[in-house]
């Protein structure tokens, strides 16, 4: 029977598999395999490398991870450590930062991702300082289809929230695809509200193609 447990180093490859399998359809369908590869260095690997104690695994009962919840309890510190400690890992993986001129003239997603992974400061949403002032932590959660719709997502989030409460973290935020109505209903049910400090196209919490949702932890 499946259960939730802390992340262990042996889970790394299974976590990468979960990331690749649950990435948004446009990433999985992209013809360039570099897109998913680089994406894992933005949305999966840095968390299990820099904040492993805030990462939890959904174990299928045989020791294999079939889901995860990854968290940075202090986004500001996470960005600093990403730049100081994790960019070396990115470089060792052969991911090169493109020239700014190439990014400006190239609409290719892989080129954009190569640029983004070298600019973790974008996570700070500096134009909206209240986001990190009130909700300093952020999370990512992904579960394989075989274990979805069984309330594991809810249980994993509560496991993380309990950890954050114990550490005195006041609030947590996340970014989700603005077109993912199913995810929106899930987060509504768990009390994650669109962040009122953002608003684009008349939609609260929206910036570009993402909706930012927040929840107080204390």
Automatic annotation (TrEMBL):
Residue ranges occupied by any N-acetyltransferase domain in the UniProt entry: 2-218
Pfam families assigned: Acetyltransf_1
GO MF terms, alphabetically ordered: acyltransferase activity, transferring groups other than amino-acyl groups
Name listed for the protein in its UniProt record: N-acetyltransferase domain-containing protein
Organism the protein comes from: Knufia fluminis
């Amino acid at each position: 029977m499946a259960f939730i447990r802390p992340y262990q180093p042996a889970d790394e490859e299974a976590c990468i598999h979960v990331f690749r399998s649950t990435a948004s359809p446009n990433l999985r369908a992209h013809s360039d395999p570099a897109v998913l590869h680089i994406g894992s260095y933005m949305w999966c690997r840095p968390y299990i490398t820099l904040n492993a104690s805030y990462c939890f695994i959904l174990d299928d009962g045989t020791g294999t991870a079939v889901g995860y919840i990854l968290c940075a309890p202090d986004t500001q510190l996470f960005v600093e450590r990403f730049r100081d400690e994790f960019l070396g890992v990115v470089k060792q993986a052969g991911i090169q930062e493109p020239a700014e001129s190439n990014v400006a003239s190239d609409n290719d997603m892989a080129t954009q991702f190569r640029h983004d992974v070298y600019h973790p400061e974008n996570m700070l949403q500096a134009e909206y300082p209240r986001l990190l002032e009130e909700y300093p932590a952020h999370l990512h959660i992904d579960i394989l289809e075989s274990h979805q719709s069984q309330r594991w997502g809810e249980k994993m989030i509560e496991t993380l929230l309990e950890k954050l409460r114990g550490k005195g973290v006041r609030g947590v935020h996340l970014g989700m695809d603005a077109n993912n109505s199913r995810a929106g209903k899930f987060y509504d049910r768990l009390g994650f509200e669109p962040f009122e400090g953002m608003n684009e196209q008349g939609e609260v919490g929206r910036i570009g193609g993402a909706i930012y949702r927040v929840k107080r932890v204390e």
